[in-house]
Amino acid sequence: MAPEKNASVAVVMGSDSDLGVMQGCVDQLEEFGVEATVRILSAHRTPQAAAEFARTAEAGGLKVIIAAAGMAAHLAGAMAAWTTLPVIGVPLTSEGGLSGLDALLSTVQMPPGVPVATVAIGKAGARNAAVLAIQILALADPVLRDKLLEFKQKQEQNVRAKDAALGGAS
Ligand code: RP5
What we know:
This protein has helices at 19-31, 47-56, 75-82, 101-108, 123-138, 142-165; strands at 9-13, 36-40, 64-70, 87-92, 117-118. The chain has 170 residues and is α/β, with parallel strands linked by helices. Residues 13-15, 17-18, 42, 69-71, 92, 94 line the site of 5-O-phosphono-beta-D-ribofuranose.
C-alpha cells in the first residue's frame, strides 16, 4: 500500500483500523490494473490534512476519491465539501460502533448539492467502491471498459457454473 505518485484513484480511510477491510478495495483496483494512493486521514482527528488532501486532489491528478470510515463517518462528506471530483463513501463497522448503521447514515445523508456515492457497509462496499471508481474512469478509457465487460462475464460464468453443479439448467 505504498503511496502511488500518478494514481487516478485515492483510497482514504479514517483510521489504520480500517485497513483490513479497505485492502479489499485496493486489491480490486489492482485487479483492473489501477494503482491507488492510499492515505489515513480523519475528518475529526486530522481535519486540516483531510481538507488539504481533498482541496488539492484534482490538481494532483486524481479523478475519483474513495473515502471509508466508521462510527460518525464524516470523512467522505468532508472530502466532497472540498472537491468537485466524484467521492465514493464506504461505511465501515467498527469497535463500539452500531454495526455500521451509524457510518452508513453519516455517509449517505448528505445535504443537496454535495453528493457522496455511498456503497454497502464493510467488505462488499469496499469492493464495490473500487468497481464504481473503475466504471467512472472507464467512461474515458476503453481498455478499462473492456476489462469491466470481462469482469461481468466472469461473474456470470461463476454463478452459472455453481448453478450447473447443483443440477441447474445453466
Ligand atoms: C473512524 O472511527 C475510523 O474510520 C474508524 O472506523 C473508527 C474507529 O477508529 P479507531 O479508534 O480504531 O482509530 O474515524
